[in-house]
Each structure stands twice: as structure tokens, then as C-alpha cells.
């Protein structure tokens, strides 16, 4: 059980840093706003995206949040990562930015797997 908890919290904290902390701290920088515009989205989309990412991270890391809400947070992140990969592929073609969201998606999948594994114990 200790190994499962370590894997779950390690992967979940990676998601929390990449999808909650970093976007919250950098969303208003010129570079972040240029990135949103480059993909063809309006500036308000970036703000909404950061708000939902932070709420999703809170749902994942706070133990008192009901499991059903955690499931919705996991689903939301799956959509975010898949659509990010599609957006980058459509605008820039296949490159590192296209595959990075898919790498983070795999980390999210490990977190989700161990989330359920810990519920069984």
C-alpha cells in the first residue's frame, strides 16, 4: 500500500505543478498570452482555462473532495490534454509541443490508475 500511495501522490503532484501552479503563476505573462493567440484562441480562453485547471488540481489533491468530483476533474484534464495536442498539431504540425500534452496525459493516467487502486484497499 505504501508503494501505491507514493506513486499516486508523485504523479498527482506532477500534474498539480504542471497544470495548477505553473499556469496560475504564468498565465498573465506576455509569452503565455502569445501562445494562446498563436493557437487561434481569444485571450479570455486562456483565463478560463487556467481557472478550470486550478479548480481541477484542487479537486485532485484535496482528500476531502468527493470521489465523483475527482472523476470529473480527471475527465476534464483528459479533454484538456487531448485538445492541446490536437491544437498544436493543427497549427504547428507534429513537433515536441504536440507530444508534451500526451506525455502529461500518461502521467495523469498513472495517477488515475493508482487513485482507483487506493480506493480498493
Q: Quick gist of this model?
A:
The protein has five helices and no strands.
Describe the structure.
The protein is mainly alpha-helical and 121 residues long. The chain has one domain. Helices cover 86% and strands 0% of the residues. It contains 5 helices and no strands. The protein has helices at 2-26, 30-38, 43-61, 67-92, 96-120. The longest helix has 26 residues, at 67-92. The radius of gyration is 15 Å and the shape is globular. The model has no long low-confidence stretch (mean pLDDT 93).
Question: How is the topology of this model organized?
Answer:
Blueprint (H helix, E strand, L loop, with lengths): L1 H25 L3 H9 L4 H19 L5 H26 L3 H25 L1
Helix pairs in contact: 1-3, 1-5, 3-4, 4-5
Average pLDDT confidence is: 93
Sheet/helix structural class: mainly alpha
Note the total helix count. 5
Distance between the termini: 8 Å
Please give the radius of gyration in angstroms: 15 Å
The beta-strand count equals 0
Principal-axes geometry comes out as globular
Helix and strand string, N-terminal first? HHHHH
Low-pLDDT stretches are: none
Largest β sheet strand count, sense and barrel closure: none
Q: Which percent band covers the strand fraction?
A: under 5%
Helix share, percent: over 70%
Count of all domains: 1
Amino acid at each position: 500500500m505504501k508503494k501505491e500511495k507514493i506513486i499516486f501522490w508523485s504523479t498527482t503532484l506532477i500534474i498539480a505543478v504542471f497544470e495548477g501552479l505553473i499556469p496560475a503563476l504564468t498565465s498573465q505573462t506576455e509569452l503565455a498570452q502569445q501562445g494562446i493567440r498563436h493557437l487561434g484562441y481569444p485571450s479570455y480562453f486562456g483565463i478560463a482555462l487556467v481557472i478550470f485547471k486550478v479548480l481541477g488540481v484542487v479537486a485532485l489533491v484535496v482528500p476531502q473532495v468527493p470521489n465523483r468530483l475527482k472523476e470529473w476533474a480527471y475527465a476534464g484534464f483528459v479533454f484538456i490534454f487531448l485538445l492541446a495536442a490536437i491544437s498544436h498539431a493543427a497549427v504547428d504540425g507534429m513537433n515536441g509541443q504536440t507530444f508534451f500534452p500526451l506525455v502529461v496525459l500518461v502521467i495523469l493516467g498513472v495517477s488515475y490508475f493508482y487513485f482507483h487502486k487506493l480506493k480498493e484497499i
